[in-house]
């Protein structure tokens, strides 16, 4: 095995942590993607990278310097908080969309007469201009999207609640 100069492993470890932090921040949409020069969000990728750092924390526990431990824990905390913040932004955006749809539906409903509403109800359609707003499972896209966000939140906090102090 090749001998390394003292401190090189510490520098390499810190470089790996910072590299993974940057990758996660790009996936969270907090940094510009250097390849595309665009802000891109991919919360699944961010979650994976945060989990990878968590695994690194577990696997190297007891074999790090105090500085490495502090840096790794600070990075994990920062990324987890940013991830949860992005999930909350998604939730708020979905609520706004739902309220906007409800307002649009109310205005549309005021303009229709009883005959039109009766025919629409017979066909099992809502106030969507003759198209069904429900998916195969009988739920609207907004309901499905809301559930996906809740699943992501559970998934995110499930891997994050076991954080060591």
What does this protein look like?
The chain is mainly alpha-helical and 165 residues long. It has one domain (8-160). It is 68% helix and 6% strand. It is built from five helices and two strands; from the N terminus they run H-E-E-H-H-H-H. A two-stranded antiparallel sheet has the order 1-2. Strand 1 and strand 2 (38-41) form a beta hairpin. The radius of gyration is 24 Å and the shape is elongated. The two termini are 35 Å apart. Mean pLDDT is 77; it is low at 112-142 and 161-165.
Number of strands: 2
What's the Cα radius of gyration?
A: 24 Å
Task: Kindly estimate the percentage of residues that lie in beta strands according to DSSP.
Answer: 5-15%
Task: Give the overall shape.
Answer: elongated
Attribute tags:
165 residues; 2 strands; mainly alpha; elongated
Give a summary of the structure in a few sentences.
With 165 residues, the chain is mainly alpha-helical. Helices cover 68% and strands 6% of the residues.
